[in-house]
Design goal:
With 177 residues, the chain is an all-alpha fold. The chain is built from ten helices and no strands. The protein has one domain: Tetratricopeptide repeat domain (Serine Threonine Protein Phosphatase 5, Tetratricopeptide repeat), CATH 1.25.40. It starts with a helix and ends with a helix.
Amino acid sequence: MVICAGAAVLLFWDTEASDSFAVSARAKAQLTNTAPSQQTNAVTAGVWPLMEDYFVAIAKNKTNATELARQVMISGTNDWNALAFFSWRIFHDRAIKPQLRDRALALAAAERAFQLTEGKDPTVLDTYARALWENDRRSEAITHQRKAVELCKEEAKRIDMEANLNRYTRLSREAQR
């Protein structure tokens, strides 16, 4: 019986789950409600807890938020998924008051994610378009949102992206009147 239990442990032991980095990466993913990207490694994995610290600080209007934002941008400089998520969350986190949303920071993060993916990832393009829109770069936002729609293969996401494109186009036309 002991031999069977020992064999079962060896057969079903998840070596990846016992790896300290893998456990740490999964813990960070749970904090941010998204999985670290395939590009996340020991160097860029530290960006996820910094991001959480930033959002806690900004929600509570603490003065260390600016320094945390700088650290997020440095730590995540080569992690397109983390930067795209950071930008997206700046606009969508309900704990952040609208007047405290750092639109320039969101644009910088989205722009770097856009560069890292060479403009080929539709979700990054969608986030980048939103950051451009929020920074009053309307025509660029529409151009990038259109490309996001064209590249998106997942129907549900594409429908959301088309809705964003339609909203940007409509609001842009209204502003020109």
